[in-house]
Amino acid sequence: MTGATAPNAPGDQNRPTGPGATATGVPRRPASGLRMPRRTVRLRLTMLFGGLFLISGAGLLTLNYALVSHATQGAVSYQGANGLSGSIDGLPPGQRPEHPTQGGPQLSASQLDKQIQLLQSRALQQRADNMNALLAQSGIALAVMAVVSVALGWVIAGRVLGRLRTVTSAARDISATDLHRRLALPGPDDELKELGDTFDELLARLESSFQAHRQFIANVSHELRTPLARQRVLSQLAVSDPDATLDSLREAHHRVLVAGSQQERVIEALLTLARSQGGFETREPFDLAALTAQVLTTRSPEAESRGLTLHTHLTPAPTSGDPRLAERLITNLIDNALRHNTPQGTLEIRTTMNGPCPVISVANTGPKLPPAALERLFKPFQRLESERTSREEGLGLGLSIVQAIAEAHHATIEARTQPAGGLFIQVIFPACVSPRMQRLPVHSA
Questions:
Q1: Crossing angle between the packed helical segments 323-339 and 288-305, to the nearest 10 degrees
Q2: Which single residue of 108, 180, 252, 381 has CA 20 to 30 Å from 404?
């Protein structure tokens, strides 16, 4: 029926009702109610400073109270109503001093004992009152100083965290478009200054990474746009030619296929680069010498066709990692040495052990290169075309893939130019790791 309400569930009668209750029965927090202050670092440091001062102050006052109590426990001073004064060192009531009075009336022994007992009780009461007063005054002083220490702690914590707020504000304001900004925190060389310098170094690395990323995207777009434009022009010319023949159309399609093959090479190289930078989770054992021998069986005919002389010295160099990526590393090293060589040149390939570390080295003859050009060669799409090769032979990704694979294996690359021309590149892998070790952290390029 319309307007009918369902009976309450078994637990509905226990749920609170009214304007302050929610549908689940949990009371809604009043919007205008008192809210606890946010537990900032400054507040926690202030409470820490105040708590430490309170604890240390209470300990100091307790120690002072104990020392005063111990010092006055055996000897208390008194001032009697009848003019008697002196000190009582815990004498029993029956023991009488030789000169209890000076110039006063002579008392009997019993009267003297009673007088001593009365003076002793008054002195003890006076000591107790003095100790209570000391305790009360110390408590008041501790409370006042605790409030002062909290206030001073708040001010000091604010001054100490001021530079940290600068870092926070800069991190909030800096975006991907203004990574050139730096904090340059002033002040002493302390932990906060070190934090600011570390943040500046992070910004520098991010700026370099963003610039490299933008440059990489621009290069990829250019590399893929060139064969696409070539394909479109070839197709348009073939279609618009009124005198096209079967041979001309076949030649146009052949050129289109060549441009498509170049696109495939670029995409395959990019996928290999991305896979190398992504790292791997499981290590497998492999031998650099065996992988190098496999690669040489497919590259020897090209070396012979170019008139190059191969010198190989392959000794076992076991290591672990991803053998497929390692094979790509070796292939790119050999291809780079083959393509960028001189006619009738030489190519030397070695695998060996440098202590516990396996090493592969490739040296070739070739044109002379300035030492400053080495760093460029390991960046994506960087070519020295006028000195090394034409665009058709290289994509500019070979050595960048080598670097990415080496970093995925935590290996070290050493490269140098040779005096007579050419390059010497060696990759030093870390000491052989057990294949049972998996999911090792990988540092991407």
A1: 30
A2: 180
Q: Is 90 exceeded by the pLDDT of residue 287?
A: yes
Instruction: Please give the model's pTM, rounded to 2 decimal places.
Output: 0.52
Query: What is the C-alpha to C-alpha distance for residues 76 and 259, in angstroms, rounded to an integer?
Result: 111
Q: Does domain 281-428 have CATH number 3.40.50.12780?
A: no
Rounded to whole angstroms, the Cα distance separating 103 from 52 reads 58
DSSP 142: H
Distance between first and last Cα of the chain? 70
Q: Where are the domains of the chain?
A: 41-94+108-160, 204-269, 281-428
Closest CA to 336 of 297, 290, 295, 372: 295
The yes-or-no answer to whether 204-269 and 281-428 have a common fold is: no
204-269 belongs to CATH 1.10.287.130: yes
Q: In terms of DSSP H, where are the helices of 185-305? A: 191-240, 246-278, 288-305
User: Between 48 and 38, whose confidence is greater?
Assistant: 48
What pLDDT, on the 0 to 100 scale, is given for residue 177? 65
SS3 373: helix
Confidence class of residue 391 from pLDDT cuts 50, 70 and 90?
very low
* Helix, strand, coil % in the chain, rounded to nearest 5: 50, 10, 35
Residue 372 has a pLDDT of: 74
pLDDT in tens, 187-207: 777 787 888 888 888 888 888
